[in-house]
Design a protein that fits this description.
Layout: H1 7-18, H2 35-51, H3 63-74, E1 90-94, E2 99-102, E3 105-108, H4 112-117, E4 122-126, E5 140-142, H5 144-156, H6 163-177, H7 183-214, E6 218-221, H8 230-238, E7 242-246, H9 267-270, E8 276-279, H10 282-285, E9 293-296, H11 300-308, E10 318-322, H12 328-341, E11 347-351, H13 360-368, E12 373-375, H14 381-387, E13 390-393, H15 397-404, E14 408-411, H16 417-420, H17 435-443, H18 454-457, H19 462-470
Parallel strand pairs: 1-4, 1-6, 4-5, 6-7, 7-8, 8-9, 10-11, 10-13, 11-12, 13-14
Antiparallel strand pairs: 2-3
Helix pairs in contact: 1-2, 2-7, 3-5, 5-7, 6-7, 7-8, 12-13, 12-17
Length: 477
């Protein structure tokens, strides 16, 4: 079954195929057009309407914590990116959230296997501040102080970006894009874009000096297709640096950050996108419309962990429920029904999305109060998958990873199904009334083999594939 494309993504494609002049306009003093930086804001707003999802409201940090974080960012630190002064042919630019604990340190599972191959040629820069646990890769530095300094310089600057000018552009994009965009959406996108535009000149100046010191030939940049830091992508590409994005999660025809219309292939807009995307396998690029080269590499961390996972018959009788974020009450009803239908010796483990953990009691208190349902607290999801015989979810990348980890996979029916999984895992489970199908699949015989080959989803030999790709790019042939 070919996956469908959501209305919001089609609207983005239609706007970019029409290529109105406003997409190419820059704010005064900006180095790149505004459109790439606000595109993701529209993408998330439209996704909210396409799938009737309930956003998770962030828990506000106390003002004292914000001031403490500001103070720490401005104090001298060994983790500050400006302490990085050695030349490296490969620079990894990551968010800092894709980590798990290993021997008292934080290992970045997204790029850790890559830096291990060429440690003398690699440097890691992450936007997130480095906390009490040091990074597993020694030459890791934080860009948090750099961005904090850029924000401070922007507040002191005499000339500032006009919020009205940003809003005029955002409102015009909204008018051309989709009539579901509300004034509240425009306000939120404008506020984010105005802040980014205000610090852009200072951020680019500091980042340019960082590039002078490191002088990389290749930059592997997480989320490079999302916009938000499009000026930095353009800056690197203007220096002849090959900008590459490693895939970090689900991509497909409905993902707005990996599907672009004709305008994004024009030089001034393609300059804000990566040159290449390293995918987990051939499956992921099917149906996407990205102007970058799509290169299947695999996922080394998953490959290593799946090799260590116990055989299915040797695992405890446990099923893992993976949160979709969208409908906590529906997820709770399903979990309670499944717990009641499973034999007593089976355990039900619930894994929330990371953004839900601060609000667990409010979202899932009724579920987690039920005996026999436990919260999954493993830092690495692959540790959880290695324990589970079955996995139930909606539209998470974890479902595809569970396949590689030898689990039986069940997909709950939802507005996401036709857009994210299709019939890859068989017919969907229709809510709490359909839990008996899950029970039969777990307790009885194995379900049929899925339609797509696992090797197409997860290319085998990921380390060897990366080393082959890196020759001539990161290290000489």
């Amino acid at each position: 079954m070919t996956l469908k494309t959501a209305r919001g993504t089609l609207a983005l494609l239609a706007l970019e195929d029409a290529a109105p002049a406003v997409l190419f306009e820059r704010l005064p003093g900006a180095s790149v057009p505004l459109w790439p930086d606000v595109r993701s804001g529209f993408m998330y707003a439209l996704q909210k309407y396409d799938f009737q999802s309930t956003p998770v409201e962030p828990v506000p940090s106390p003002r004292s914590r914000a001031w403490l974080g500001l103070g720490r960012a401005l104090l001298p630190s060994r983790w500050d990116s400006r302490t990085l002064r050695s030349r490296r042919s490969a620079m990894y630019l990551v968010g800092g959230g894709t980590t798990h604990p290993v021997d008292g340190k934080r290992r970045n599972w997204l790029i850790g296997s890559y830096t291990d191959q060429f440690p003398e040629s690699s440097a890691v820069l992450q936007w997130k501040a480095i906390g009490d646990q040091p990074p597993a890769f020694g030459l890791t530095r934080s860009l948090d102080p750099l961005s904090t300094r850029a924000a401070a310089y922007a507040r002191l600057a005499r000339t500032r970006t006009s919020s009205g000018e940003v809003r005029r552009h955002v409102a015009e994009f909204a008018r051309l894009l989709d009539d579901r965009i509300t004034s509240g959406d425009i306000d939120a996108i404008t506020a984010s874009a105005h802040y980014s535009a205000s610090i852009a000149r200072h951020l680019e100046s500091q980042f340019s000096r960082l590039l002078d010191r490191v002088d990389p030939r290749v930059v592997l940049m997480e989320d490079a297709s999302y916009g938000g830091r499009s000026a930095l992508v353009a800056l690197m590409k203007s220096r002849g640096i090959h900008v590459v994005e490693p895939q970090h999660g689900w991509i497909g025809p409905t993902h707005g950050a990996y599907n672009f219309g004709a305008a994004m292939r024009a030089p001034e807009l393609f300059a804000t996108l990566p040159d290449e995307v390293l995918t987990f396998g051939e499956y992921w690029s099917a149906g996407t419309r990205h102007p970058a080269v799509m290169t299947p590499i695999g996922k080394p961390h998953l490959e290593a962990m799946s090799a260590l996972a116990p055989r299915w018959d040797d695992r405890a009788r446990e099923v893992l429920l993976v949160s979709s974020v969208a409908s906590p009450e529906e997820a709770t009803d399903f979990a309670l029904a499944l717990r009641a239908a499973l034999p007593a010796e089976w355990a039900v483990r619930f894994r929330p999305h990371p953004i839900e953990r601060p609000t667990l009691d409010a979202r899932y208190g009724r579920m987690l109060a039920q005996p026999g349902i436990v919260l999954d607290d493993h830092g690495d999801v692959y540790e959880s998958l290695a324990l589970a015989r079955g996995v139930v979810g909606v539209a998470s990348t974890v479902l595809f990873e569970a396949l590689a980890m030898g689990c039986r996979v069940f997909v709950r029916d939802s507005p996401y199904a036709d857009y994210y999984v299709g019939d890859l895992f068989g017919s969907t489970i229709n809510g709490a009334a359909d839990v008996d199908r899950v029970v039969r699949g777990l307790v009885g015989d194995r379900p049929p083999v899925v339609g797509a080959a696992v090797d197409a989803i997860w290319r085998p030999g990921a380390i060897e594939a990366f080393r082959s790709w890196a020759l001539g790019r990161i290290v000489p042939e």
